[in-house]
Structures are given as C-alpha cells and as structure tokens.
Amino acid sequence: MIADARPRQPLIALIGLSTGLLWTWSQPTVDAGWLGWVCLIPSFYLLLHHNLSGRDAWLLGASAGLTAGLGRVYWVSETLQSYGGLAVPLAYLTTFLLAAYVGLYPMIALRWARSLSPGHRRRLPWLIASIWVLLDWILSWLFTGFPWALLGYSQYQSTTMLPIAALTGVHGLTFTLVAANVALAQLLGPRREGWALAALLVPSLMGLVGVRLFVDRPEPMGSHRVGIVQGSVEQGAKWQTVSLTETTGIHLRLARQLDRTEPLDLVVFPETAFPFRFDHPSYEIHRRWLAELAQELQTSLLVGSLGSASESGDRGLFNRAFLIDRAGEVINFADKVHLVPFGEYLPLKWIFGYLDELTAESGAFDPGQVEHKVLQLRQKDGVEPSPFAVFICYESIFPQIARQQTLAGAQFLINTTNDGWFGTTSAPAQHLSMAVLRAVENGRAVVRAANTGISCFIDAQGGITKPTSLFEKTAIQGTVGLNSHLTPYTRLGDLVVAVSALLLAISFTYDGHHRRRTTNRQVADARQQLDAWAASASSLEKHIVLASGYDSDASVWAPLLAQLKACFIDADERITAVDLRHDLSIEDLSAHVASLVADESDQPLVFVGHSLGGMVSIRASHRLPEAASQVIAVASPFGGTVWATLARWSGRECPRTLVDLGAGSLAARSINQLIPETTLDSLRLAGDMLSCHPVGARSMTTYEPALLVGPRTRHTLLLQDPRILRDIVGLIRG
User: From the DSSP assignment, how many helices (H) and strands (E) are in the chain?
Assistant: First the structure.
C-alpha cells in the first residue's frame, strides 16, 4: 500500500540526510556497527510506502549519498589544507566533489529502487542488494578505484558477522546488510509483507552456515615474534632534508626499546619511515645504521623507504619496503603498485594541477613494475623460510591485492602505511577497519605498521591486539601466526559479485519476457476495442483540440486522427489541430489556442495535449470558463524538466518556451496550481524521462513500452501506441 500524499522536498532531503548520518555513524570512529542493519531504512521506507516522483527519488538519493560521502571522506579537506597548500574554500570544494562522486553510487541504487519497487515487491531486497554490490564493485576499479568505507566494513568488530567475510568478502557483508535494510523497510509498512523475512534472515543464515561448513580454522602452523616501530614523525617535517637524520634516529631508538627477552624474527617500520632514496649512494650512512641495527638485534628488518630503480633497472621513484636480513644485507624489496591518486601521482594535470603541492615534497611516485610479490623471511639455519607479502597503505582497501598475495603463498601479511596525512580524523580508524577485512577474507594474520598510528596486530579471525594511539611514539611486539590453508574467498574471489550479476540478469530476463507478453496482450486488446468502436461509430458531441509538443507539428496526431475519424461520425468538422512551434511563453501559447477555439466554447471541449501541449491545454481551458472543458495530457512534463534548461543552454529553438518548460519554472508552478480545478487525465509510458504525472489528476495511467525502446523515443512513440489511442478515444466517448 502506497500513501497518496507526496512528501515535501525538504522532508525528503531530511530523510536522506538521516540515512547518510546513520551510515557514517556505523563506521569508525563512532563504531556503531549495528546501525549498518538499519541505516538505509528511512530512505527505503519512503521509497516503498510513499508516492515519490522520479525527481523526488533523485533528491532522496542525492541527499543520502552526499551525506554519507561527506561522512566517509570529510578528512580530505584537512589534508588538502595542511599538505596541499589549498585555501579553505578550494579544499572544501574539492572534498565536496569527492564526496559527491562516492555518493553517486548509493544515489543510483536508491533511484533504481524507486523504479523497481512497484512490480518487484517480493524480489526487491535481493535485487537492490545485488545492484548495490555491483555498484560497489564498479567503485573499486573505475578511475583507479576508491572503495573507501563501504557499508560492509561497519561489521569489522562483529564477532558474529565478520567470519562471513572469509566466505564472501566485504561485498557479501554489504549484500546482507542492504537486503536486511530493504526487508525491514517492507516489514515496517502497513501491509506487513511477511515474505520479506526471507530476505532479512536467509543471507545471514546462509553466511553463518557456510562458515561452519566451508571455512576451516586450523591452528597456526607456526609463529613469528614481530616488532612494530611507530615513529609518529609529523607529516610536515618528515620530508625535509634537515630532518632525515633526526627521523632515522627516532626509529632506531624506538626499535632498540623493543623487548628482546624473546628473540624477534622481524621488525617492521611503517611506509616511508625513512623518507629518502634508500638505494642511493648519498644515504650510505643511513643504510649502515640500519644494517648495524639488524646485526645488533639479530633480526630481519622490513624498512619503509624510497627506491630509485625498478626491477628491470629503469630509473624512477618507488614507494618501497626493503627486506634486510640478520646480517644487515638487503635481500629483497616490495614496491607499491596501486598508487594513491593526488597523493603519490597527479592524474589529469590539466584539470587537477592546483593539487600539485600534495606531491611536491615526496615527489610523484612510479608504480611498481612487478605485481605484488611474496618475500621470504629467513630464519635460523636449517629452518625453512616463511613467505609473507606486503601491501602498502592505500592498497589495503583493495581486496584483490591481499587475495593475490595469499594465493601466491604468503603465510602472513604486512600492511605498512603512513596515515599522518589524516591527522586525528576518523580516517586512520576507517583505514584500519579495511585491513581487518583483508585478514579475515584470506585467513591470514596482518601486521599493521603505521607512521602515526593505528599500528596493531590483527589475527586471522580479525581480532585486533595491541593497537597504538594516534601520534604516539612507541614500539610494540607480538606473536604472528602462520597459515597456509586457503579460505573460500581466497579460492573463489568475489563470487558474490558474479552471483549478484546473475540474479539481476535472471530477473531482468524474466521481466523482459513477462513485459513483452503483457504488452502484446494489452496492444491486442486495445486494437480489438478500437475496432469495436469503429464498427459502431457514434456522433461526436464534443469539439476536440489537439495541441502538439515542443518542436513538433500537427503531423504527430495522424494515428489519433485516423482513429477519431473511424470511431466518430463527421469527426473532421469537430477537430482543431494547433501548431505550438512559436517562441512564446506558455501563457501566450495558451491565449493563442483559446482564441482559435473561442467560437466553439458553446459546446464541450476536449483538449488533448502532448508534452508541452498538455500544459498549454490546462491554461487554455481556464481561459474559456464558459465551456465544459476536459484535458487529456499525454506525456506532459508537469513541474517542468531539466532537459528543457539544457536544450536552452545548447541553443535550441524557441528559448522563451524552453524557459517556461524548465524544472520548477514559475509557469510550471502556476499550471500545477490549476490542476485541482481541472478535469485532467494523464497518460504516459514508463521510463519517459521528459514527462511525469501531475498531483491531483482525475486519472493517471502508465504503460510499459515495448522492449529496447529508448527513453527519448518513448516520449513521441506513445502517440502511435494503440493503448494510448484507445484510452484517448475512450475518454472522449465519456
């Protein structure tokens, strides 16, 4: 049951805002993970149980998406001001644009939900969850990808739901949450749609049962004692040449403070902890200090620094982690392959050149030329080395990177990062939540070393131990378990994305087949009815006024004229077709139409208007109050349309008319005020972006178009549709 009253737009925007805020609070640092189960309910309830127009749905989606986007990436503004040298207004504008981009995806999902809700009540939770997952997947690779703080990450602390990630990855958690939100919105409606319980419970139960059946949790095959050094060097001072020796000294002193009661197997330093070209002759003394540290501690070191040459010897600047053995020798390294746009390189400089200061100090990096490789941690003589892999900073938000490393044989993972860019915002905690999912997805412990925090140890089940505070100078050590078994997610990857695509394909194929059969049946019935009326033609007791749309003439009425002549006797004498191709306001066009039929006002008038003609007809009927008027609006843009504004900007004909056709124009609003006093019937085809039904019409009829008919074609094709022609003739017959 859908409420007839349409909510006002400020209320719609406020409800979208509440959805965005609840989504934000489900993520770090509020960490109210339970909100992930309910955050979308306000928007979905409004979509499912209220009569929202397409424009209202876009507003709702934009409000929810933008608010959630700002909650997820607001910290970018502080980074741009502190390290990009941007003025406050420009930093805010850039952050707003990024938030709008990440918010575009939930906005599309919510708008799609509005389109699907009328005819897919039972399937809706599954379809919307599938659409949401596919949009998140697109976000993970389009424009290099930015899948930051997806809804599924809200469960990173849930001991119940988190294990499902080993089966489905973060996208499976998102699917479960979205399906639950839609199902709860359905259950809260007046009809109490009990079958929504399946969508609420089945994904979670399937996940939990799947974990019990298919996810092994073997005891670690061994362990390593690992130390983490968190130097907390302020980002602004880190890249200054005069600070390099001091920065190195801070990290060396902290490393020597590690508890060596039990021997350490590895000490990990954060991303670019040593901000110089480690393999350059100018920094020989710094390399010697680190070699001496390895010999002193009798442990291997993983050192975050910069490299000058690629694997093949090509010169460049690489964000690199060097592996130094107990003897102080550099035995291998791992490069960052997926660089941070705007932080480590500047894409589309002709657009984003104003952000070049972000890369000015560290330099623009080159991506590693070899895919993420596995390193070998050497142990004592006679002991097999332990394979491990490193994903650096931003790479932790991409599930496929850690998965590829695990498939390559890594028995534990290391995430080195420099979150100093983020200050004390929620970004470091958000970043940590994504590393937790990488651990669970692949059944691998993750050692997380962050320059300014949060450093910690994450076990294979996602448990976080010894987390450090932000901007704390400290060194911690812990035991890291080794595993070689593969989780279902590691073996199969993002299968839930493929399943989501398959669900949508099956559903839309079924819908297409059903729609084709329904449309064919409706068209056949309409033709049969028109033939019946033609076989017993009656007198036409009314005068018909046909008003064409913008940029069209009376020829568009040829199919209707043929039916009118067949169904009525002497119809030619009682039809006036009006060409509206004049650069006039709607007020002037209506005056023109009224003047043409003023002599016919002693008899009932039926105005049939297509698109613009429907709006003109309403105003013209009120100019002839003495006539008993009826208006049939066919695909009219009540309230105006943004497409008219775009057409005016592009220099199309009749700019004065296009002004009145613009969305929210004064003329459009004044016509809407006349609708309650008008005998109005509205006809349109579904998916016509140029039209909408008015509020307050006597009847509103929407037909599905034939398959593969584009939105623009629908706007004019309906004048040839037998169903529309049948309805117009039927309304004229009375």
Answer: 25, 20
